[in-house]
Specification:
The protein is mainly α. It is built from 10 helices and no strands. The chain has one domain. α1 packs across α7, α4 packs antiparallel against α5 and α7 runs parallel beside α10. It comes from Maribellus luteus.
């Protein structure tokens, strides 16, 4: 069975995203074993006691290309309180991620309408805009579900003139990612 070019794109980039997830998980478990287990109280006191700092760092990270994987914030939330507290934080993190993706999409849309950027795009990114329009749905879904930089992809899709309603519709896959990854974190970190 031969896959269409769009499905090949989705599968290829989806596999790359899951490979990165595996690398991130390995790095986390290594960090956990080497650093956190030797001085757990120092880490707990420093970060767990200041939730506003955690929320601000998360917002900053989600706006600037997902510098810190959301799973680390999920782990913080599971260790911070009971199941309801974790579900509240998970929902908050998912909503913030969705919102920050949309804000970056709007910024990209501003660049799309900006005459200077349009001229620059014509010279430097001739085929990119047409590729993003062609594969936009798949690009959004792959970035929403995998560790690809969600904010960066949202910015790129917005700068290609992708329709806002379609972006918002397919960006809902981001919430699915948080539900699945949140469940995995919950199952692996239950006491």
């Amino acid at each position: 069975m031969k896959l269409s070019p769009r499905m090949q794109f989705l599968v290829r980039n989806g596999l790359k995203g899951f490979l990165w997830l595996t690398v991130l998980l390995a790095a986390y478990f290594l960090f956990r074993e080497v650093v956190i287990t030797h001085k757990p109280d120092a880490w707990v006191e420093r970060f767990y006691a200041r939730p506003m700092i955690i929320y601000l760092i998360y917002c900053f990270s989600e706006f600037f290309f997902g510098l810190i994987p959301p799973e680390l914030f999920m782990i913080w939330a599971i260790n911070k309180g009971d199941t309801w507290h974790y579900l509240f934080n998970l929902s908050l993190f998912a909503g913030i991620s969705y919102l920050m993706g949309y804000i970056n999409f709007l910024i990209g849309g501003f660049f799309y309408k900006n005459e200077t950027f349009t001229n620059l795009k014509r010279r430097l990114l001739k085929d990119s805009a047409s590729q993003v329009k062609k594969y936009g749905i798949f690009l959004i879904i792959v970035a929403a579900l995998t560790p690809l930089p969600w904010s960066g992809v949202s910015l790129l899709v917005g700068s290609a003139g992708y329709p806002s309603k379609r972006f918002l519709k397919y960006a809902l896959f981001r919430l699915l990612r948080f539900a699945v990854y949140g469940y995995i974190v919950y199952q692996t970190h239950q006491i």
